[in-house]
Write a structure and sequence with these properties.
alpha+beta
């Protein structure tokens, strides 16, 4: 959808938001192009 420096910036911003609201033990990871995986142990 977004390419180049702007697209990279959007992905970084999204990752920061995911990490900000995740708890200790949660795993936030980016894989592929624009896909993210969030593992919530115990949920």
């Amino acid at each position: 959808m977004y390419q180049g420096p702007f697209g990279d910036s959007v992905l970084v911003d999204i990752a920061v938001i995911f990490q900000r609201y995740s708890q200790d033990g949660d795993l936030v990871a980016r894989f592929g192009g624009e896909e993210f995986a969030i593992l919530l142990p115990g949920a």
